[in-house]
Amino acid sequence: MSATLQTLFFSPTHSSRRIALALGDGLAAALGMPQKNRDLTFPPDREQSLDCGPDDILLFAFPVYAGRVPQVLEAPLSRLRGNGAVAVIAAVYGNRDYDDALLEAADLLTRQGFVVAAAGAFIAEHSVAPRVGAGRPDAQDMTVLADFARRATAKIAAGNPAPVSVKGRRPYKERIPAADVRPKTMDSCSKCMICVAGCPMNVISREDPAVVATGCIRCRACVKFCPQEAKFFDDAGTAKIREMLESKCLARREPELFL
Asked: What pTM value is reported for the model?
């Protein structure tokens, strides 16, 4: 069986997906390997295991949630088996900080038997405050991604790549306690069901999209993709976070690469 680039991503609002596919295409072309993409955004795909061979490459891209790997990915990642395969990681964050997320992802994959040879932190539009990181990833970011793919390929192709050291601290940043915050729906909702189809937690009712069960992770996919702009969050916590981000995090940050 030929070696394969296995590209995994979790991407409710599609930014991590865009970065994963761009980086994956660059790696696959440079390494001369076939590529298989696997989207972990929706529950059925998160239930599957993946065993990599020692000659495979794993590319894992994910959005940073409050400085950590999204908790919903802990179980899917525990079902990966690296068997010595090389891994490349892309953490995607909203221009504030990625804190310990990159280190946490590297530790998770290392425990599953991967050699993390390259990692990067990339910027995308913040889901809570779209003015923060607006338009990212942009053309400049895509140029950096292409360069990262070339450098990672060179390291991997040289044989026996050494594990990379990334920024972050142990113990990781404490997770923010989960709050039962759910999106609300305006009367302008047309019941097109785009929000239902795009919810990564399957908590929006298929009978009435204005009804949302517990378990929302506030990814805001329903807000971003609603053609009627009928979904919204109006809780005080979200408003406070948006205000903080827009007052402190508008200055452009650049990707950080570790090879």
From this structure: 0.96
| pLDDT computed for residue 177 by the predictor | 84
Residue 27 main-chain phi, psi, to 5 deg: -65, -45
- Residue 49 burial (10 A CB sphere; 0-12, 13-18, 19+): exposed
Distance from the Cα of residue 150 to its chain's centroid: 21
Spans in the chain with pLDDT lower than 50:
none
What does the pLDDT look like over 104-149, one tens digit per residue?
Answer: 999 999 999 999 999 999 999 999 999 999 999 999 999 999 999 9
Q: Which CATH fold would you assign to the domain 5-171+254-258?
A: Rossmann fold (3.40.50)
Rounded to an integer, what distance in angstroms lies between the CA atom of residue 5 and that of residue 231? Answer: 37
Q: What does the alpha-carbon distance between residue 107 and residue 77 come to, in Å, rounded to a whole number? A: 11
| Helix/strand/coil for 242 | helix
d(CA 113, CA 63): 22
Q: What are the CA-CA distances from residue 247 to residues 77, 88, 240, 242 (Å)?
A: 35, 33, 11, 9
- Could you tell me how many residues make up the chain? 259
**In the chain, domain spans:** 5-171+254-258, 184-241
Domain spanning 184-241: which CATH class is it, in words?
alpha beta
